[in-house]
DNA sequence: GCTGGCACTCACCCGGGAGGAGTGCCAAAG
DNA sequence: CTTTGGCACTCCTCCCGGGTGAGTGCCAGC
């Protein structure tokens, strides 16, 4: 039932609606696009598209707007990811290159994405589970107080304060530090637990309690921090769709404040390639009128975390997808360099 | 000209307006408050208050609303900071106590403040300039690559990657680490520069370049990170004043995205005691219709950073001030304990 | 299968009138 | 001099009804 021209009509409807934010009618369509047919024909096609659930009318005598299903078809079949212009690409590169540390990379990425897409940007910190351990450092702060610092190959640093069950000498500390690092440095995070299990046995009885405490804190950090952090930005862009305010924006802001929701959102996306979730495809209710475009990024070929944008279902998909993909690539490069 | 009763009238106007969000008239005032006079008298008082610029009418035949000047008088003279109930205090304490590290403390504080005040919360990370150095750690990642980790007494950790001009041996590294720490550990950040100036001289010629590089990176970190970070939350609360949407909320969201703006905002506040900036008292244009309530917090008696909330000028000042003060105290306690 | 014509349906945009809250002023009372 | 009730006036808000126009669905003809 959906011949070539009808798909073309759907594409035209999506494009116009995204541009004007108003329901688009048959006459306007034939004027703005070279469809080669009359409004009456387009009306028939529209009726068919509506029958199939790709478009809908807000009320009887209004134009049509795409449904979630319509956007889905558009994204899957009709839209080509729009590559960025080379000045844009250069700007991205320059902007990201100035970053001084991981926090800064993430912060800059968020700003960049938000500006490029004019939407809300979400960037996940590189994940610990997929990262490897670069170094574990132990610092004695007081006789029975140790600070554990964990450094990953993505430049992330986590620290924990540890109260020891018994005083712990500098020599023992140095010993533990050396042994720990020789075992876990360069290892993937998930591989660490079995490698350190027998460490307490190598120590004097009086130190074993402390060693165990340190180890369990290390493993805890591993697990806890698998709940990954993220950063968002560009929320002011939400105000651009002032129409249905504030009914739309309220639940979105609320959802964005819940890291858990966002993490789940990014987690649902495919590990490789770009994922677009449209409207009701998003599990979270508050995001039912938004679309999420996300993609994995990483320093090597492998994705270590995800980033993306959240915007109204009525968004410029080709442009947004292009920007998201480009930013992910450049962030990957920057991470690989540092 | 402003006798006791007129102040009482102003107080009543502020309270009612904050509650109803609608201009308040003379009749309604006498009904809701025991002023002991008739509406006509109140009208006279209102005329006087308007004359002095404390209240205004949106249009001729409407009730009055407080001006910025009116709120100012209210806050300075008429409002008592409202202490929290003890269940609330207990809830704060329990909620903050579960934090595992500094990031977590800040994150929880933001959530807490946002929930308590139902407004946008801003929490500054404990400042490096006022903090002292707990430890400096140097890690060799490659023959000519060193990672510098700086740990402060507030639990904050900063790291920097350093490319050395020449390979740097483990012994030299350990030497530098020891010397550095013996000089700067426990020192205030601002005091560090002169203390390390002559360090390169203690090393072999071949290592001096690297030592200088490390030192300058350390001092850089000191300066750079004096531009402090902060965390915000509760932006969804902005949607509660759906009236003048989105004209009001847009610039506010934009301002809140600019860390620089926020830092300046908090920086302008007094170092000790609570600061309330009302409407146009805020330098930033986007915040002209909001008030900022902020206060310093710290682990000892001394403030190391600030926190506060941003809300509409029409806010519950006593309640907000009470919540902000209480949260600041508890955060201070938590920081002191860790 | 495409096209032009045509009647029909609503949302949107005024303009005007009723209603009402609130004010300012004034004259009288305390 | 302050307070109070009365009163006329202002002007915002709400609601109603008709006109307008974009857009549709259907149909008959090509």
Automatic annotation (TrEMBL), chains A, B:
The keyword Lipid metabolism does not apply. InterPro entries: DeoR_HTH, GAF-like_dom_sf, HrcA, HrcA_C, WH-like_DNA-bd_sf, WH_DNA-bd_sf, WHTH_transcript_rep_HrcA_IDD. It comes from the Bacteria. Keywords: Repressor, Stress response, Transcription, Transcription regulation. GO terms for molecular function: DNA binding; DNA-binding transcription factor activity. SUPFAM superfamilies: GAF domain-like, Winged helix' DNA-binding domain. Transmembrane segments: none annotated. Pfam families: HrcA, HTH_DeoR. Residues 34-62 form the HTH deoR-type domain. One of its GO terms (biological process) is negative regulation of DNA-templated transcription. Residues 103-321 form the Heat-inducible transcription repressor HrcA C-terminal domain. Negative regulator of class I heat shock genes (grpE-dnaK-dnaJ and groELS operons). Prevents heat-shock induction of these operons. Belongs to the HrcA family. This is Heat-inducible transcription repressor HrcA. The lineage of its organism: Bacteria, Bacillati, Actinomycetota, Actinomycetes, Kitasatosporales.
